[in-house]
Write a structure and sequence with these properties.
alpha/beta; 39% helix; 9% strand; Sirtuin; metal-binding; NAD
Length: 363
């Protein structure tokens, strides 16, 4: 998955190959060719709906998923995550009745809740978005168990990529780096002027980049998905209602044999029954007689990740990672606050000392 440039090739030395050496090279070429053919088969399978529906999981449960991961056959996990993975950090999701973001935007006097993220409305009325962004700005929240579970997948060499709908940057805070992430709706990490004539970029000190409804998704989203999803051998979907396209459509881009695990408070992304009868669509199928690869674990994202980690034998490691990283973040915050207070006191003292007393008039 690394985007790093390949090291320069050394000049080849002239050698005389023995017959057995030629046989080895031929085997390597055949193996490489086989890998390319596997990639093409998966590509056609996912994009055209071709290929056999092989059942990989021995059981359509969280236990079945854990056994598959521990079998060693699962090497390239793709995660798709939404706002539900950050709710335990104190960040509201969008659609939960009563507590979701859309249910609590009355103070911004919007014509309808979604307007706050629509580019046309933002260009005319930017104030509501910036007020909300101030509330959600990075540094006020710590990553959740779910975020650190994905970091654990990365540390164990199992994470192919994380596709996130979130703008809170908590995946990055948890230790996922730029190449590990596709931030489908942007991030607070970079920003640019929305004026067509300007497009000037700004860094974290000013504001971070958000993709509004009505704007194009990053080019990297489309180029990476063409590579990541045909190779995926386990798709883990967490904390998303799978209602926003084109993100939601990614679930249908994995090979037909690829298991898909949903960890969410309710089932989501299910196939349209009519399209399913016609053999179209790549939506989730948890309950029909034809279900063979989709697993729904109904719980909070943190509870689901802890349960899966326990089945994998990683629970203590995950809990230790969360405890250690939260302590580090708290310590860093204390140091930054102390430093800011010290600088503020020094500035105030210097300002006071620089004011000379007024000379007294002689009577």
């Amino acid at each position: 998955m690394s985007d790093a440039a390949e090291p320069p090739k050394r000049e080849e030395e002239e050698v005389t190959l023995e017959p057995e050496d030629q046989s080895d090279d031929s085997s390597e070429e055949e193996a490489a060719g086989g890998t390319e053919m596997d990639f093409l088969r998966n590509l056609f399978s996912s994009t055209l709906g071709l290929g056999s529906a092989e059942k990989v999981l021995d059981e359509l449960t969280l236990d079945g998923v854990a056994r598959y991961i521990n079998s060693g056959k699962c090497k390239n996990i793709v995660c798709m995550v939404g706002a539900g993975i950050s709710t335990s950090a104190g960040i509201p999701d969008f659609r939960s009745p009563g507590t979701g973001l859309y249910a609590n935007l009355q103070k911004y006097n919007l014509p309808y809740p979604e307007a706050i993220f629509q580019i046309d409305y933002f260009k005319k009325h930017p104030e509501p978005f910036f007020a909300l962004a101030k509330e959600l700005y990075p540094g006020q929240f710590k990553p959740t168990i779910c975020h650190y579970f994905m970091k654990l997948l990365k540390d164990k060499g199992l994470l192919g990529r994380c596709y996130s709908q979130n703008i809170d940057t908590l995946e990055r805070v948890a230790g996922l780096e730029g190449n590990d992430l596709i931030e489908a709706h942007g991030t607070f990490y970079t920003s640019h002027c929305v004026s067509f004539c300007c497009r000037k970029e700004y860094n974290l000190d000013w504001m971070k980049d958000i993709v509004f409804f009505g704007e194009n998704l990053p080019v990297r989203f489309f180029t990476s998905m063409k590579m990541d999803f045909p190779r995926c051998d386990l798709l883990i979907i967490m904390g998303t209602s799978l209602q926003v396209q084109p993100f939601a459509g990614l679930v249908g881009r994995v090979p037909k044999s690829c298991p898909r695990l949903l960890i969410n408070m309710e089932k989501a992304g299910q196939a349209d029954p009519l399209l399913g009868l016609l053999g179209f669509g790549g939506g989730m199928d948890f309950d029909s007689d034809k279900a063979y690869r989709d697993v729904a674990h109904i719980s909070t994202c943190d509870e689901g990740c802890l349960a899966l980690a326990e089945l994998l034998g990683w629970k203590a490691e995950l809990e230790d990672l969360v405890k250690r990283e939260h302590a580090r973040i708290d310590s860093q915050d204390k140091k930054e606050k102390a430093s800011a207070q010290s600088k503020g006191a020094a500035a105030a003292k210097g300002s006071s000392a620089s004011v000379a007393p007024e000379p007294q008039k002689e009577e």
